[in-house]
Batch of 4 targets.
Target 1
Amino acid sequence: MRVLILGGSREARELAAATSGERGLEIVSSLAGRVRDPHLPEGQVRIGGFGGTEKLRDWLAAEDIGAVVNATHPFAARIGANTAVATAALGIPLLRILRPAWSEQPGDRWTRVADLDAAARALTEFGDRVFLTIGRQGVGAFAGLTRQWFLIRAIDPPDGALPPKHELLLTRGPFAVDDEIALLSDRRIDVLVTKDSGGDQTEAKLVAARAAGLPVVVVDRPALPEGVTAVETAEQAREWLLRTAVRSDQDSTR
Ligand code: NAP
């Protein structure tokens, strides 16, 4: 069975590594091509968008894909919606990997908001020095804020408009708690803004904010498309793939 793994996350690389040599599975990983120097998954890789839902559907049919695992980042909503529609049209089984969301711990001062625009609005309540750790995309939501100074951290430079007062810090995690505490103190940060990405790769900033008693604006995840089943780990997705391959084999020999 040919399998498409939609990647761009650690779980996607773990799944590709765990299933690449598996008998009966042929894995193709797909990356959007956003990061200049991506961590490549093991095995076959294609890079770049498909060109929308219909082109994705045509690609899945032409490549004879028997199952899709959407292991993109929890905030990659568009590819998730496109994939749900394309796989449903073709009757291809689809699974989502969604690592557990972060949860507030004693000592945390979190404000949860629905999206980046709401995060920008929420900032009126806090101090002037903002640590923006939402990645490269979506920084434009903060471009109109002229009062605050922003420390913007991302792997690659954000595109589009930026807030007038800012410093750009281009670096890739994981980050250590002590380094995060030092950064908050050095830049005299008043408030942190983050997406609820979950996982331990970038969690240190939340531990640091707790230690420093700083408020955090946490952007909630987009909703899962209706009818899509999700698991939390690459291992659960591997088990699902093996079961799906057996079923597909039984169907084809019937
Ligand atoms: P998105 O808004 O859901 O997708 C935008 C478009 O990018 C999609 O319509 C699709 O283009 C293309 N695309 C996205 N993921 C793809 C993949 N794995 N393979 C091929 N095409 C893909 O996604 P995004 O937020 O731009 O994220 C893009 C990639 O960066 C994802 O792979 C995601 O895992 C990774 N990432 C995202 C975030 C984040 O915060 N959003 C953080 C870390 C990593 P077409 O319509 O042309 O097919």
Note: The domain at 109-219 is CATH 3.40.50.720 (Rossmann fold).
Target 2
Amino acid sequence: MEDENIQLGPDQGDIVAEAQQEAEQASSSRALYETKMKFLGRTGKITALLKGMREIAAENRPAFGKKVNALREKLEELFAAHEARMKEKELKSKLAREQIDVTMPGRKAKKGGLHPITRTRQELIDIFAGMGFEVFEGPEIESEYYNFTALNTPADHPARDMQDTFYITEGFLLRTQTSAGQIRLMEQKKPPIKMLSPGRVFRSDDDATHSPMFHQMEGLVVDKGITLCDLQGMLDEFARTMFSSLSKTRLRPSYFPFTEPSVEVDVSCAACGGKGCPLCKGTGWIEVLGAGMVNRRVLENCGVDPDVYTGFAFGMGIERIAMLKYGIGHIRSFTENDVRFLEQFKD
Ligand code: DAH
């Protein structure tokens, strides 16, 4: 009972009411914390009261201390309640702010596709691998010997002018044709040979259908008794798989130094079925590759006896095949990296 008479100080009576009022006004956890510190912190009102204990008569101190403790407990309870309320309020507003619409369609991760040249190259490899061809890749920097001389195109041969060559140093160049791979393979491997050699080639040439760098696919078959009929049969199979089941091929006489006889191969136009249309310029045929029977001299240059073995070779531009197959008008589309163009080749 005695305790009731112990006053905490003239204006301490409504500390609780004051704390209650300020806590109610606090608009955030941070503000509430600051208010709490004003009462319960190291420099707060409770600490101030305890410091004032010195001025109180010794016999009253225990009772005073008890009162201050009771007050502290009350305040702690009061702030705990406000903190809980504040937490809940803030959580609610956070949830409202961060509300997500789970029915909204997601953003799909964009998937890339193979470049049309890579695709076409792969399709060609698949077709010829099915006929037993193996892939052999030669170097892009070649010697004049492999690119020209061994292919029966000596230094003064006019056929060297057919291909505008990028020379690197005396005797070395960027290969102008994958035909160089024929020589490299025949030097390494004895017949029977069934080789496919895809790769980049380079020529100083630039217009709607020519580019200084493009891709070729070379084919070479060497064995006993190989004839031009084998070449045509294989090309028919290639055209039917690559373009249309109704495709036909036609051979026209031509000239390449490394083949004798040489032919240019046309495929019936898949766009009009051979009737004639703007794509085939009304002829019904489209030229797709060069080919021929491997020239005896080329076989001899590689140590293959031309009286025992014969062979055929062919070479095609991968860009040209892709342009025909997909109806692409300009060769530059392949290297411009326009996503709108490339996106059309996704699976
Ligand atoms: N190398 C020739 C060129 O780039 C294409 C070619 C024609 C390759 C006839 C051959 C072939 O293997 O037999 O124009």
Note: The two ends are 90 Å apart (CA to CA).
Target 3
Amino acid sequence: MRSRLRTALATLVIACLLPLIADAASVQSPDGRIRVDVDVNERGEPFYSVSYRSATVIGASRLGLRFRDHAGLDSGLRIADTGQRVSDNTWEQPWGERRRVRDAYRELTVQFVASDPARGFAVVFRAYNDGVGFRYEFSDQRYYRDVAITDELTEFRVATDATAWWIPGRAWNRYEFVHHESGLDAILLAHTPMTLKLRNGVHIALHEAALVDYPAYVLDQRRDGVLKTDLTPWSDGVRAYKATPFNTPWRTIQVSPDAVGLLNSDLILNLNEPNKLGDVSWVEPGKYVGIWWAMHLGLATWGSGLTHGATTEEAKRYIDFAAEHGFAGVLVEGWNKGWDGDWFASGAGFSFTEAYPDFDIEAVAKYALARGVRLVGHHETSGHVTNYEQQLDAALDFYERLGVRQVKTGYVADGKGLERVDEDGITRFEWHDGQYGVNHYQRVTEAAAKRRISINSHEPIKATGLRRTWPNWISREGARGQEYNAEWAIPNPPNHTVTLPYTRLLGGPMDYTPGIFDLLHQGPESQHRVQSTLMQQLALYVVLYSPIQMAADLPENYERFPDAFQFIVDVPTDWEESRALAGDVGDYVIFARRERGGRDWYLGAITNEQARSVKLPLDFLRDGTRYRATVYRDGDGADWKSNPYDYVIETLDVDSSDAIELELAAGGGAAIRFRAVQ
Ligand code: NOJ
Ligand code: CA
């Protein structure tokens, strides 16, 4: 305990070890609203509970771990020691939703031991004003030197009935599902972040932070209202292989009196370790276009031949378009060998350094650099991790030599479909979110950092705030993205993008790829269409945070609406500050963000299938400054289904004392640029 405290933060830390007393302990958030209580029952089973403004949020919930070859730490325990400290500091994000992040909490460490005091662990709780994090900590122990964890008992006993927004865990399509909105009782297995609205209106979100070298967990509802962590197993059934000393990831409970408060919470980032990469000025937020949507529309193919999308000529056309409109990058998918045939079946055939003959990658990369644009790399693995890892160094060296600074990766394979060839040459199939997957994504990120390359993982492990520690893990997918609005899928319904900020994006940035302008690409009769108005596509750039944002449509479709396209050209992707202003889960959401290093503000508002009008005070603007607002809004007759292209662009002069009335059409949105004029 004492050595833990000695190595603690250099910032304001007031440490006070409590005397060796208690069989119960508690800690409160700095504002006193959130309280965590910890105790053991008569069987020596450890428990914790959480309250918000004196009302229980998480009732008495179990803690503990079980092992394959060692005695479990689940009962027969007592509290041997407790300690508390307080910390309050502010740190800077190299890129992000806001430059400065306040990290203020009170911490409680509870040392649990068995009758043999050589057996035990500490559980460290941090109470913040916006929620709670806790994790298990194992010191360098003789007894638990190498352990195979078979179960984590951590529970979240939700205190009241609740509405839940969730996607199924342990399912074939990883995280790519439309969220259910249901009573708590409908949940069997659910991924995190999972968001709940309790009977008294308090919103909570269950998730985890700093998921490193450990499996992700899904929530398993064993008994009514009791959600148990279910660690994703290896193919041999073990959940995690660990060696002491180690800490588990933080188990997190964000708590807010309303839905919007969740959007303004920095809990997940604060529970991650500071930047380990030092100078990361080479990590470049920005916008990109790419040879991408054409394949999803079936107009071109990833495979080679007459319909091949990734040709030298086509890449140059995109580069010209990017240069003309100020986009930083051009993604090219399908340039490398391995896409011919059924790449869904196995990624064993992918080469990450050999191009198809009609794609001169050297010439394309050079052409891009000469025009002030960079090629964005692509590594689709189809889940064959061993094939990818065997080529990883060569693949990243290759891109580094070409001046590539960002690589999108992909793991198209069903859940439990990551292919691993083990030491005996036997192919094993692993989950994307098991310890094997977690460690693989991490290896790629760290190998890329050595080459000053940033990673945008598709079919990723869920986001748990690791961008703070490795800022080159710049974005990821990990939910149903825009791709589902293409020719091959059932589209995202209008309540999807108004659910994502309150669920998936609580974990971190998402590469949703907004900005489809040809909303009816298969014609008005087809079900394959985008279920939004054109204006909502603009608003998504502000609402769905990512430091890299794609302008996902074909250049020719942007040329049809140059006035609306101007917003995509103007909107930044890196912010000085961000504020969620209004919204409700699955209904609507409004964000305002100020550009990094500048005075201009941008606003994005989107709604679900219901039209709504929202009166919004502009008090986030700087007092005493006049702004010229360019408003991109749904026209009076707009409706995602019947009239998605009806829009109005108008300018207004405003300041912080004004209010505006936003009229959002069904499936609609509004985007505003506030240019500081004096
Ligand atoms: C799925 C990704 O999400 C998508 O963006 C990509 O185009 C395909 N895989 C092919 O790699
Ligand atoms: Ca995907």
Note: Residues 292, 333, 380, 410, 412, 458, 477, 483 surround 1-deoxynojirimycin (ligand 1) (CB under 6 Å).
Target 4
Amino acid sequence: MRILLVEDERKVASFIARALRENAYAVDVAETGEHGLELGTDTLYDAILLDVRLPGLSGIEVCRELRQAGVESPILMLTARSLVEQRVEGLDAGADDYLIKPFALAELKARVRALIRRGFHKTSANLHYADLELDRHRRRAKRGSSAIPLTTKEFAFLEFLLLRAPEMVSRTEIIEHVWDSHFDSETNLVEVYVNRLRQKIDHNHRTKLIHTVRGVGYRLGSIA
Ligand code: CA
């Protein structure tokens, strides 16, 4: 899952980004509204966190412009004060939700999870495909009755494959959603992770679920 964070206060931005990365989200940070607008229109984010008070373009203006540009990613506004007008203005500008600063990290993470679920129109906390099951709240995976221990990145990778299953996902989409913009696309990290997931998911199973679409990407499905 890939998130855009637009926040001008560096300390706050790095604090939030670190917390989200620990939960296996890929996070891009923009320090100005202008940069946020540019990133938000160029990349398909799973969620956008937008601070209201920014130098130059305000968060509300950024939100309005993103919506006008046809960006449908769920947007969470971060408001500094509990001003009713600011909240209403944000929602009118097309934001999905708002959070008042200062907030607890647990609250932010819960809101982000809810926002992403809504974005995918999947209200279920569980993702299934064949006998593979992913519990997105507890961050647990199992195939049949056996639990599969996954690292946070492996979980994020598998979650993305499952959300699209049985459709194909391109290598570029995987990089964009599972890693962030600092990722060196020349490395073979994607292949390394696919191999690890195969070892964990498909090894010892007759029906293989992870398939390579030669030269393009990968697909999760029960038919090769
Ligand atoms: Ca600010």
Note: The first strand starts at residue 2 and ends at 6.
